[in-house]
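Worked Example 4.2. Consider the chain below.
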Amino acid sequence: MKSKSDKGFLDFLRSGGGSLKIWVILLLGAALILIGSLGGTDKKSAPDTETRVAEMCALAEGVGRCEVMLTYGSDGEVESALVLCDGGDLPSVRARVTDMVSSLFGIGTNRIMVQKISD
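Applying the procedure from the previous section yields the following structure tokens:
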């Protein structure tokens, strides 16, 4: 059984009075979907990437426990990285982790911060 609002909408479509409005709405909706699928990073994979990088860095000598946070630009590319790890107070560990992250993401070492994780 059709509701009163369904019948009114169907009558509106049949009359042709709103066909231009409907096409405009459909085109705008399609454009928004397309724009949303093109831009930015896949938000679901960002935490997975951070976790994987933290796991790999933790395997390096002297790093220990590790947490990673990545920031992304509007193009979806990694813009900067913050790495907190047990060995982050040692210059050799900071250099090693900075080199690893720089190599992985192709970002400059000036965009990577490595610090000691708090106890």
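Helices lie at 4-15, 19-38, 45-59, 91-105. DSSP finds four helices and three strands in the chain. Compare this with Example 4.1 before moving on.
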